[in-house]
Amino acid sequence: MFLLIFLHLFQTRQYIRKFIKPGMTMIEICEELEKTARTLISENGLQAGLAFPTGCSLNNCAAHYTPNAGDTTVLQYDDVCKIDFGTHINGRIIDCAFTLTYNPKYDKLLEAVREATNTG
Length: 120
Fold this sequence. Notes:
It comes from Stegodyphus mimosarum (African social velvet spider). The protein contains three helices and four strands. By secondary structure, it is α+β, with helices and mostly antiparallel strands. The protein has a single domain (1-119), classed as Creatinase/methionine aminopeptidase superfamily (Creatine Amidinohydrolase, Alpha-Beta Complex), CATH 3.90.230. Helix 1 (2-19) runs antiparallel to helix 2.
């Protein structure tokens, strides 16, 4: 079961990384991610669904920002965007978080974060 949840999360992550582009609103990003996750896990009430609201944080907001209805914030080329989402099946939760940037000036920062994460 755990591997199945992980596979669905991985597929959602791969898709949404390609989908997100500067010019999109935070709401558009969250809605597409959540729609994709719900479809892949075959959302079914309390048996399978989203584990928590999708986090879509920009720049100095480190984590856990979720856009509310009416939020008009748009992802810009120079933004650092942190995505955090999770799904559950039968109460087993998997969380996924990743960072996206479009301006190459952030490449060294992201590499340093990857190295630190992989080092432990």
